[in-house]
């Protein structure tokens, strides 16, 4: 054991501080090409004679997809899927596609996965889309094994998209391992300490603020993947947010080099500086644009959820657990709720503030997170050995939390199912389990709440079934309640 620890210390000290690859540099405008389409591609994506997926010269998947269909699917990706796994800066994605900023392999992956999730039927292509996605997942896994010390930002983007897709479409150990591998590669590359390496290495120092924001975005997407992958499996998180030194997303649209920016701006957005006072970060985030603040609020509520699950894990492993850590989380949750903007906790769309449908549903996801924290705390508090009347009150809080989760589902619009992270399926599943327990308990008969429980169950189940029309994960969860 001591030898193993010495080896781990050695490798930890050997961890490289690498600069970004050349693909992260500011792209030069492409030269005009005759007969180019809206996105700059002059012909379909490397057509093959058979129309089936094959290996290209760059070891990527090559398919025959007409440029018009590529253009349509890229726009469909931005309108539907991107919000669930935001690996690009939304306002720049389409213009960057026009300027050929992204790798051919990444664009192809986006196009194929978008076609699969949206049910798009190609008019001319003859390949089997399911077989193609299987090959993309296999090829992507092999590429991730051979990343080297300096993977490009497009390689990270593709790996994030594939990990997200596999976790929800093919849930299991392999998908969990893929997220773990991606998380470790991000830390090996230094994405968890961008505010440090940006001032030490020339390749990072010469980047514009927008380019650094793109790397920050990748890091926080991986943070989200690490969060729900390990939450669902009951395993410790790989990322320790208290040690991360990469700021949340900001709004610095200029192209000035990093050395011209003030480090104090980034200090205010460090999650590690606010991990015990997330309400302090909320006041800063609230002043941002809706797109940026929505993403950062998602990170804040995810972090609070991580803290709650970590405290519960410690609590459950101790023979004589201390309840102070759980009380601290509950106080933290209360402070976060009170620091949120006006009407943020409103489950309905805030029409007077011009909140759009997609923005509303992005906010509903964070409300799911907050209510799940309360739900988990209420469940674990039921294990406290107290008088019967105290236990009944704690058991009632579990039911209240389930009702609150159902009230969020009541405002759900199925047209936005693709725009949100389908990991909320696991939250809905947990609420359904405890509603079923409540319905079968004697307390439901005494309180006369049987019909209310059935209504909450029906609402949550219908939302889960809507998500199941797209994703395998909720489809498997619904089968747990099949008669």
From TrEMBL:
UniProt-listed InterPro entries: TF_fung, XnlR_reg_dom
UniProt main location, coarse: nucleus
Ranges annotated as biased composition (Polar residues): 45-60
Any single GO CC term annotated in Swiss-Prot or TrEMBL for this entry: nucleus
Segments of skewed composition (Low complexity): 16-26
Cellular compartments annotated: Nucleus
Xylanolytic transcriptional activator regulatory domain: residues covered: 175-255
PANTHER family in the record: TRANSCRIPTION FACTOR DOMAIN-CONTAINING PROTEIN-RELATED, ZN(II)2CYS6 TRANSCRIPTION FACTOR (EUROFUNG)-RELATED
Record-given protein name: Xylanolytic transcriptional activator regulatory domain-containing protein
């Amino acid at each position: 054991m001591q030898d193993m620890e010495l080896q781990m210390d050695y490798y930890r000290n050997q961890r490289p501080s690498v600069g970004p690859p050349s693909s992260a540099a500011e792209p030069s405008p492409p030269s005009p090409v005759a007969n180019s389409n809206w996105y700059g591609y002059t012909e379909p994506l490397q057509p093959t004679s058979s129309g089936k997926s094959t290996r290209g010269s760059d070891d990527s998947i090559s398919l025959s997809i007409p440029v018009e269909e590529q253009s349509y699917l890229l726009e469909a990706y931005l309108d539907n899927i991107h919000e669930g796994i935001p690996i690009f800066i939304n306002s720049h994605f389409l213009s960057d596609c026009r300027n050929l900023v992204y790798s051919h392999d990444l664009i192809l992956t986006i196009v194929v996965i978008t076609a699969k999730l949206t049910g798009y039927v190609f008019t001319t292509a003859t390949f089997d889309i399911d077989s193609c996605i299987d090959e993309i997942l296999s090829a992507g896994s092999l590429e991730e094994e051979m990343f080297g010390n300096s993977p490009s930002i497009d390689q990270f983007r593709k790996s994030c998209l594939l990990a997200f897709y596999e976790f929800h479409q093919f849930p299991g150990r392999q998908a969990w391992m893929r997220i773990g591998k991606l998380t470790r590669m991000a830390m090996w590359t230094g994405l968890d300490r961008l505010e440090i390496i940006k001032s030490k290495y020339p390749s990072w120092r010469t980047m514009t603020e927008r380019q650094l924001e793109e790397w920050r975005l990748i890091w926080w997407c991986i943070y989200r993947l690490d969060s729900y992958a390990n939450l669902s499996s009951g395993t410790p998180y790989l990322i320790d947010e208290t040690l991360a030194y990469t700021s949340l997303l900001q709004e610095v649209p200029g192209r000035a080099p990093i050395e011209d920016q003030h480090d104090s701006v980034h200090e205010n957005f460090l999650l590690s500086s606010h991990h015990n006072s997330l309400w302090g970060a909320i006041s800063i985030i609230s002043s941002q644009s809706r797109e940026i603040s929505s993403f950062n609020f998602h990170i804040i509520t995810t972090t609070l959820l991580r803290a709650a699950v970590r405290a519960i894990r410690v609590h459950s492993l101790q023979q004589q657990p201390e309840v102070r850590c759980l009380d601290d989380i509950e106080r933290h949750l209360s402070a976060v709720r009170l620091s949120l903007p006006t009407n943020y906790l409103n489950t309905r769309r805030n029409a007077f503030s011009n909140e759009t449908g997609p923005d509303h549903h992005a906010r509903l996801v964070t409300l799911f997170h907050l209510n799940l924290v309360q739900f988990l705390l209420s469940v674990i508090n039921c294990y406290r050995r107290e008088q019967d009347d105290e236990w009944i009150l704690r058991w009632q809080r579990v039911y209240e939390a389930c009702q609150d989760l159902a009230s969020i589902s009541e405002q759900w619009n199925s047209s936005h199912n693709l725009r949100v992270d389908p990991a909320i399926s696991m939250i809905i599943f947990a609420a359904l389990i405890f509603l079923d327990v409540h319905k079968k308990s004697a307390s439901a008969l005494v309180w006369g709440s049987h019909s209310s429980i059935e209504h909450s169950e029906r609402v949550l189940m219908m939302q889960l079934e809507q998500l199941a029309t797209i994703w395998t994960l909720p489809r498997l969860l619904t089968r747990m309640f099949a008669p």
